Amino acid sequence: KGVCVSTNDFLKWDNGIRKNILVKASIQNEAFIPYDDFGMGWKIYRGDIAYHHGLYRGFRTYMHRHIFEENMLVILNNTQISNKIVNIIEQINRILEGKKYKLPKLTSTEKASLDKFKNDYWIRK
């Protein structure tokens, strides 16, 4: 609890896991065995995605690690859209799996905020 990392830190960590540098393969295999969908601190989804979500001081972290593929999805969030994050994660996983996906619909407030962001910060060529 209380660890703040970047997506780049997550990538380094994931590479260390996948290359068996941080944890031996035999221990990883045991960690990802689902026991009622829970494996040594990880929630196991569909048998092929290990995930863990966290919350600390207004920040939410969503990490989904595809066990058999070299994909890891990390979403760092400090907004009030956490109810939409699960749907966003599901749709990104569908993209990674080559399946059809649906983009979430924006509320009028979200659209106005996005439009303001585009006007203020979008890089134009």
Describe the 3D structure.
- The chain is of the alpha+beta class.
- The chain has one domain (7-121).
- Helices cover 38% and strands 22% of the residues.
- The longest helix has 15 residues, at 82-96.
- It is elongated.
- The mean pLDDT is 82.
Break the fold down into its secondary structure elements and pairings.
Layout: H1 7-18, H2 25-31, E1 38-39, E2 42-45, E3 49-56, E4 59-66, E5 72-77, H3 82-96, H4 108-121
Antiparallel strand pairs: 1-2, 2-3, 3-4, 4-5
Percent of residues in β-strands: 15-25%
**Main sheet record:** 5 strands, antiparallel
Low-confidence stretches: none
Instruction: Give the domain tally.
Output: 1
Q: How are the strands of the biggest sheet laid out side by side? A: 1-2-3-4-5
The pLDDT mean sits at 82
Q: Which H/E pattern describes the elements?
A: HHEEEEEHH
Q: Whole-number radius of gyration?
A: 17 Å
Number of separate helices: 4
The count of DSSP E runs of length 2 or more, i.e. the number of strands, is 5
Helix residue percentage: 25-40%
- Quote the distance from N terminus to C terminus: 43 Å
Content-based structural category: alpha+beta
Globally, the shape reads elongated
Task: Looking at this protein, list some descriptive labels.
5 strands; 125 residues; alpha+beta; five-stranded antiparallel beta sheet
